[in-house]
Amino acid sequence: MVQMNNASIPYPAISCRRNIVTTFLTALLLMLSQPVDGNTASKSNENSVIDAADQAFKSLHYEKADSLYNVMIQDGKESAALYWKLARLNISVAEAIPPAEREKRMPWYSKAVDYGRKAVQLDDSNASAHTWLAAALALKADRIGAKEKLNRAAEIKRELDRALELNPNDDVAWSMLGSYNFEVSKIGWFNRFMGGTFVGQMPKGSREEAEKNFKKAISLNPRVIRHYHELALLYIEEDRKQEALNALRMAATKPVLMKSDARRLNEIRRLITRLSKELEGK
């Protein structure tokens, strides 16, 4: 017998408890020492590559990100997430190229459209797939002209509506919807120019809706330069100079998250200088 706090515990009880603890520890060690099965190891490696590619993208190392994403494709690890990230990457590369070099931009936009379509094809329920397909279609059409905008308008709007149906908190989709409504508000001139002979339904959109869309995007993600810049351009179009200046000054305080943000910041600073002088002269 063993004395503990004036109580006697038989040796067999102590031995039994020791055996239970020993058995538990042995089982735990065996589980931890078992090799990871092939599927788990493959999935872990796949996630590591995607994580590394995502980090390269966030660090603005676009070439490295592109190489890593394409490693996944070469290994047959296709997914909607992989393709919408490639669409986003190609858009980012195109947008970083100076607007005057249009011919250099177009191949990147075209690849972004292809990747976006592939993402939607693989998973129609992936909100980001629809967002980045819409962005690719819109940006490509914007660089081609009014007729292409009209041809693409219905598809762009459909993709944005689907993206926001799946994820109402997608700030990129709201920002692109703002751009869509702003651009569509300018298309009326095309129909008038054609004498009302344009065949097809004219898309609908207004500056009022565009303003709401941009403000919604800002409320969801106040760190993105594009949201403020595009809102400011709308205000400038409406001769709302003080509001434009306020939006531009806010944009100038935000971090560079894309390479194209550096280009936007240069334009933003020029606009701030111009509007400040115009307002001071009043």
UniProtKB/TrEMBL annotation:
Keywords: Cytoplasm, Cytoskeleton, Repeat, TPR repeat. One of its GO terms (molecular function) is microtubule binding. This is Regulator of microtubule dynamics protein 1. GO terms for cellular component: cytoplasm; mitotic spindle pole; spindle microtubule. Its main location: cytoplasm. The lineage of its organism: Bacteria, Pseudomonadati, Chlorobiota, Chlorobiia, Chlorobiales. It is found in: Cytoplasm, Cytoskeleton. It comes from Chlorobaculum limnaeum. It comes from the Bacteria. Interacts with microtubules.
